Amino acid sequence: MAAFFASGRVVDLILLLMLTEALVVLAWWHRTGRGLAPAAFLPFLLAGACLMLALRAALVGAAWPWMALALLGALLAHLLDLWRRWR
């Protein structure tokens, strides 16, 4: 189990689950017109995915610029989410 975490595979699994969640929510919205609109949840989900990528980079010992880039992506997605909610 320790190797599963240290290799970053746990983050790969989480990202796969997040992608599955996004596809299910999008399919439901397109099929029924109900639920969350893509613009309502995609920035939020993107921020989380970027944080997961930063975690993966840290777990596998990637160079710091990769972690910084992932964290910057999370910040930008978070700011977009806030901007959309406050409008």
UniProtKB/TrEMBL annotation:
Superkingdom assignment: Bacteria
Assigned keywords, A-Z: Membrane, Transmembrane, Transmembrane helix
Transmembrane found in the keyword field: yes
Protein name in the entry: DUF2568 domain-containing protein
Transmembrane segments annotated in the record for this chain: 6-29, 36-57, 63-83
